[in-house]
Design a protein that fits this description.
Layout lengths: L11 E4 L8 H30 L6 H18 L8 H6 L1 E5 L7 H13 L4 H7 L9 H6 L1 E5 L6 E12 L2 E8 L6
């Protein structure tokens, strides 16, 4: 039985040279820079919000909401643009989807949510990338994204397929770019 008819096309993605993917230390530096920036932006937003509400004291929920909006706008919204965050700019990396394009807001939101509420601590997420062919963290695998050098050019292309990933007792399907025989 044939799964695809002759008129249907297989979705194609790209992959990069292993040296073009961000490693552990580059990702830690990106995360550190972006965390400092978003903390400063959050503090400025809270001060502006409290000043705007003065003399009435703002409630804790509204302050939390202001901080959450700043974090989401920076860590997901800005990453979904071709500009990226300051951490990516200063380190010379960019976030791309499996087609080598700027990822959608849905993909960057998924990455952020996995970082915040994922089943593992963010440090374990980063450690995962050490054994990965494409140096993807768990959140990158989940969101189908790569972190690559700003000037990286695809080393090849292949069909976007589902691959099984085993994480503790879970068997998870993630989207990957097929390369024929695995190296």
């Amino acid at each position: 039985m044939e799964l695809l008819s002759e008129t249907e096309e297989v979705e194609t993605g790209v992959y990069y040279d292993r040296n073009d993917y961000a490693g552990f230390f580059a990702r830690m530096l990106i995360l550190a820079i972006d965390t400092v920036v978003v903390l400063v932006l959050s503090a400025a937003a809270v001060v502006a919000y409290v000043y705007a509400k003065y003399p009435a004291p703002p409630d804790d929920r509204s302050i939390f909401l202001v901080v959450a909006i700043v974090w989401y706008a920076y860590m997901a919204g800005l990453k979904a643009t071709r500009f990226g965050t300051l951490g990516y700019k200063l380190t010379g990396y960019r976030l791309v989807n499996l087609k080598g394009e700027t990822p959608s807001l849905a993909r960057t939101s998924a990455r952020l949510m996995f970082l915040i509420v994922g089943p593992l601590h963010p440090i374990l997420d980063l450690i995962w990338l050490g054994g990965e062919r494409d140096r993807q963290t768990l959140r990158d695998k989940w969101a189908a994204t790569y972190v690559v050098r700003k000037d990286a050019r695809p080393a090849g292309a292949g069909p976007i397929e589902f691959d099984r990933m085993f994480l503790f007792a879970w068997s998870i399907l993630v989207r990957t770019v097929g390369r024929g025989k695995r190296k």
